[in-house]
Amino acid sequence: MTTCTPRAAWLNVLRRLHFYIGLFVGPFIFVAALSGTLYVVTPQLENRLYHNALYGVEEGTRQSLAEQIAVAEQVTGGHMRLHAVRPGLTGSDTTRVMFADPQLGASENRAIFIDPVTLQVKGDMTVYGTSGILPLRQWIDYFHRSLLLGEVGRLYSELAASWMWVAALGGIALWFFTRPKRRINNAVQNHRRLHVSLGWLLLIGMLLFSATGLTWSQWAGGNVDSLRAAFGWMTPQVNTQLHGMQEMNDPHAEHHMMHDGMNMPDMQLDLVQFDEALHSARQAGIAASKLEIRPPRSADNAWTVTEIDRGWPTRVDAVAIDGSTMTVLDRTRFVDFPLMAKLTRWGVDFHMGILFGLANQLLLIAFGSGLCVMIVIGYRLWWIRRPASASANPASTLLHCWLSLPLSGRIISALLALLMGLALPVMGASLLLFILIDALRWKQHARRSVVTT
Q1: Cβ–Cβ < 8 Å for 46, 137
Q2: Consecutive 10-residue runs of the chain (453 residues): their mean pLDDT?
Q3: CA atoms of 67 and 423, how far apart (whole Å)
Q4: Beta-carbon-side half-sphere exposure of residue 111 (alpha carbons within 13 Å)
Q5: Residue 145's Cα: distance from chain center in Å?
Q6: Using CA atoms, how far apart are residues 87 and 64, in angstroms rounded to an integer?
Q7: CA–CA separation, 43 and 354 (whole Å)
Q8: What are the C-alpha distances in Å from 256 to residues 121, 221, 275?
Q9: DSSP states of 345-359
Q10: Largest CA distance in the chain
């Protein structure tokens, strides 16, 4: 084994790891960036595509929520549990009456769109999650999250989120320690400068999207939630139990595989209570124009009225209301959230492109496009610098580079890899796969060397 200085050994490890991330994980990061960009450019298109369902008559007297819900129940035949209502309170916005359809997937609801003025049924379609996205963005979201492959497909996005921050920081470190002392103009250096420049410009975004993406992930997400709970960073939620302790809310719930209340027994609801709950919430200071009213899950639960406007500043105030007296039992206000809960909420909304409206969309479009270009340039660099033949460039594997480290370096890096693998299981499994590929390449190269001698 060729000896080298500790600094050179560390650089070799970092270079080989950065190369493997780019070669094997790069395509997944590219797909995540491209599909995420498509997601944030579609709100306006979706608004136009489903315009008839989203908007009704602007002028006229608005009918009660009870009357609107009664029309929606006639459409469904009255056989589905009423999940929530999002009243159309401003302009020509229609009211969404959402039902828990057992034939739909997790976090999906059947929404009947009612014109508040004419009581005309304007639409009947599936909506998804807290953001209430419609079928177009729902399809893009599923593709972005799981490549339309269900739970197995979610491993792809977790793999991308697990390694993107390592690739970003590792690339910056490589540039810092190996940048040329003088400017050299050739194909390799020009491509490398553009690759590095984009890396610097996109660094904060890559770190942010890795962090927020991991909170939604299948395996690492549970560890993130445990960490947040241990430090008291969970988002407060109104206590809906008429007798019970306050719960904590998961701001990523719409991306988790669950259907809230699906198995709860049906309750006979007095539809007039929707209007009464809205009135009580208004008196309690819930002033946003975008609200969601949820009836109680059972006789032991309260009604909830929650602000769902994700514009800046985030409006997620909520109240719990006793259905028998229509008095407010509990409330949460965003201004009172712990700092980390606020940052989590802002990070999630920014990731989805809804925190700052159009400004957020344009920023994410620029980020996603730049990230795709940077990955393509990285592959171009690899292609330009690829070895002419296997014999001209003996196998330089990650394992070989790691064995060149001093003993202390090997121990520290092994412990770090073990801890990161436990915290981010998909990263750990993929790292083992990298090492396995390395071992096979090393063994193959050793056989070739024996044959040629």
Answers
A1: yes
A2: 76 93 96 97 94 95 97 95 96 97 94 98 95 94 95 95 97 91 80 95 97 92 89 89 62 47 57 97 94 93 94 84 95 92 90 90 97 96 75 62 91 96 96 88 71 62
A3: 51
A4: 28
A5: 8
A6: 10
A7: 9
A8: 30, 10, 31
A9: HHHHHHHTT-SSTHH
A10: 92
